[in-house]
Amino acid sequence: MGTVPVSEAPALILPDKTRSIARDLRRTLGADKVKDDFPTITAYSVDASIYKVVPKAVVTAETEEDIAATVAYAVSAGVPITPRAAGTNLTGSAVGEGIILDCGRMNRILELNVEERWVRVQPGLNLTEFNKKLEPHGLMFGPDPSSRDMCKLGGMLANNSAGPHTLRYGSVKDNVHALRIHLTTGAWLDAEMLADGDSATDALLAAHPPLAETLTLVRARADLIRSRKPKVSKNSTGYNLFGLVDGLDQGLVDLPKLFVGSEGTLGVISEATLKLVEKPTATATALIHFRHLEEVGQAVFDLLPLTPMALEVLDANTLDLIGRAAHSVPADAAATLLAEFDSPPSTPIAAILDQVKAICRKYRLCQDPTIAVEQEHQEQLWKARNALYPTLYRYDVKKKPINYVDDVVVPADRIAELVSYLSTFFKNQDVNVAIFGHIGNGNAHIVPLLDVSDQHDFEAMVAGYHEIHQTVVTRFGGSICGEHGDGRVRAEFVPKYFGEELYALFKQVKAAFDPRSVLNPGVKISTTPFTEHIDYVRLSKPCATCGKCNSVCPVYDVFQSEDMSSRGWFEIVTAPGYEYLNSKRVVEACVNCKSCRTICPAGVDVSDLILQRRAEHPNKLAGGIFAWQGRPWLFEPFIKLMGRTQGLWDRPLPRKLLELGFAPVLRFLAPTAKLPADMVLPRLAPRLLRERHAELTEEQGHQGPVAYFHGCAANYFMDGVGDAVIAVLRKNGIEPVLPRQQCSGTPIETYGHLERVKTYARFNVASLSRYEKIVTGCASCTLSLKDYPKWLQGEERKKAEAVAGKVKHISEFLAGEGLKVRPTKPCPKTVTYHSSCHLRAAGVSKPPRDLIKRIPGVTFVEMRDADRCAGGAGTFIVKDYDTSQKIFERKRAAIRDSGAQVVATSCPACMIQLENGLRGEVDVRHIAELLREAYE
Ligand SMILES: Cc1cc2nc3c(=O)[nH]c(=O)nc-3n(C[C@H](O)[C@H](O)[C@H](O)COP(=O)(O)OP(=O)(O)OC[C@H]3O[C@@H](n4cnc5c(N)ncnc54)[C@H](O)[C@@H]3O)c2cc1C
Ligand code: SF4
Ligand code: SF4
């Protein structure tokens, strides 16, 4: 195929009617894989960059055929196509105005060779998930972006990503054996390293004219390419023609080098064969606080001979911005160094750490280095570093961290000089800046905090963009990009960096592979100014669009698409065109697990935003049920009757009839709602908890300092929780009072009836205020009571705050001062713990585990994914049974793999999901039940 020079490439034809693109694609791919509704195109209009570009349609590819059909359509119709993985890039390379081709569902490991240490994977596999699967084989993938919990291999490959461990293992380009790529010619290219001049190589080149043309160009201009090769240890800008020339110099045609880092502008990756490395058996992390920035560079050189796996730096301003106190950073620290070491077979880790300490003594440190050898402690030290960028979003409501000079590389020995140049530069601009990065590689992330809608800040950004990049190139001999890619942000500077001659060659390569310029136009090879498409509206919002919440969102886990994800929902419900009716399908899909709130480094609560939106359209059926439940004299007799007769109706045939009978009613809850005949229901109580323990109720005049807020489930269900909590408290010398109470509010809020929640909050606060301690047995009640201040104002709010301060889940209560009498009966069982989401959101994660470990005879095993939602989420199991079961699949596998005989939890609602999902395969126990058994 002849090459069309880029300047003469036909203009892209965007069909007039938006709908026609999606309609055309649906005809080929089916309705499920193509969406163009408001929520979908809104969610996909952003990535983690400063840009917004609204696409016309989104395809979620599941097979290579889907990729081929989408590319064929884009080429024939002249519609831009942007491949996408997790959308966490910081450059605007995964947004586009045509079709977004989301490959996130192609997320399988296709082949693993442990002996030869390689693996064949699909592009939608998330890095952390990937490494978890490799762990049992003692292997891992070397490059590790800080976004590892969110990003996917396709994006890492296309960006040539890197991370802290690049110091040891190189960037992605150094860890790829082969790629399978779909080209705009309609052909599939298996790109691997081949011998130059070999007949197989010649045959491949003959089959792929764009490749043959590229190699001809590269051979012809090899001297030019060599002369412009970046001289620093990392580079992800431009096309890696340097890798091709290096290969040719050794008689090799190193094809993966051309495509890694090409940012979806040359083809779509459907598979990759990757090199793996051995996972170190022991590692240690040192946190070193320097009083003088200029000493950091020398310290790095002293540490490098110890072959650290990672060397990361945070400058003084970064430490100020993220909050020194919050991260125990001394006030006089001018820079902090994070260094990670493993132990080579010949040297124990302790010996290496002794050397680290000896080196550190040469420098004026704020204190002795903090050394972590336990995994948990190491993770704690790395946590702040990994979430740095979104954490900066907390700093100011207007000034946001803006990525436009975020990824420069200089020789590692000049990083202190670079930091000092940048500090002066930004001081002169009156701009606050965070500088951090991979110091061992000389790769600095520079993130100024700006309000780009303000004229001064906008001008500072534009001036800084040109001046800093230019200085890095001319004064430091560095590169403008180490790992994040060019995208939309650096494209403008690529010709300035490489010079017009080499840039012309890049354009010829692009034109050879993509003559119609449909593949990710505007990215990498583009002269569009970097200020185009900046999303000023979004930059005024609190969300960093980092995607961290997607990594824990159970709905995203199942659907792997941005419109069904926490980050996407933030974007949708805060978008100017949002209406409940155009987005109902997604607003009603959140399970309200609050995992997004728990993890968000920027302090955003997406779940709360969604609940606010739902409250604009409260669900009428649910409202009727809550009103009924609010009249105990009507509701409780019904529960008791159902409890007494459960043996009669909870059988296959009557349950089938109930399923059919309820179906038309449940439609009013949600189109997906159902009560399947085979769902294991909790046992309803023939006598309510308050009747079984009438002597403890407030109504009967019982008094005492400790209240037990049992909530609805423990009262209405015979799940053993309420009786166990009371028994365990009694064992510890407490006769709890069962105070008058209303539903804590969680389920009511979920269906949008906020006035009722407020009324109940007032009631409960008034009722609970008189107690010294308030114990709960339910994760959701715990969180609800702790959240009460948000509903109330003035004096009522103060009272609510006082109540919130006294609320403790039974596990928290007992793990603290409450456990006066140790249980003695051995429980010779292997127990794992499912950490209920609402309890984690309430900040209670360690006490339940500690408590289980204190039960005699118990062998505690931490299961994989213990902190992930199990999918029950109160009444979500009824509202969308099928999705709730899909969410549970992951939990079931984790419980099985843990080998535990018992899975303990802290929440009656989670117990319903666990009982239903496990069907007796593993015993399910509330933590209070386990303790009670150990007392008997
Ligand atoms: C908090 C935070 C920290 C970060 N830290 C790092 C870091 O330490 N190191 C680092 O390198 N990056 C980092 N990044 C940037 C980003 O996360 C990485 O570059 C990541 O590898 C991108 O992966 P992704 O799955 O999100 O890709 P996306 O953003 O979806 O896509 C990135 C590029 O890949 C292309 N692409 C995706 N799939 C395909 C495919 N199948 N075929 C062809 N092209 C495809 C897209 O078109 C786009 O050009 C960070 C980002 C955030 C938000
Ligand atoms: S809500 Fe928080 S975690 Fe989620 S994308 Fe926004 S900043 Fe990141
Ligand atoms: S509450 Fe749970 S399901 Fe809803 S957005 Fe947050 S993480 Fe996702």
Tell me what you see in this structure.
By secondary structure, the protein is of the alpha/beta class. Mean pLDDT is 93; it is low at 1-10. Strands 13, 14, 15, 16, 17, 18, 19 and 20 form an eight-stranded antiparallel beta sheet that branches. The protein is globular and about 95 Å long. Strand 26, helix 42 (908-918) and strand 27 (923-926) form a beta-alpha-beta unit. The chain has 43 helices and 27 strands. Helices cover 42% and strands 13% of the residues. Helix 37 (810-818) packs across helix 39 (846-853) and helix 41 (881-898) crosses helix 42. Residues 549, 552-555, 566, 569, 590-596, 606-607 line the site of one iron/sulfur cluster.
Summarize this, please?
With 936 residues, this protein is an alpha/beta fold. The chain contains 43 helices and 27 strands. It starts with 17 loop residues before the first helix and ends with a helix.
Helical amount among residues, as a percent range?
40-55%
Low-pLDDT ranges: 1-10
Distinct small-molecule ligands in the complex = flavin-adenine dinucleotide, iron/sulfur cluster
Number of helices: 43
Major β-sheet profile: 8 strands, antiparallel
The total strand number stands at 27
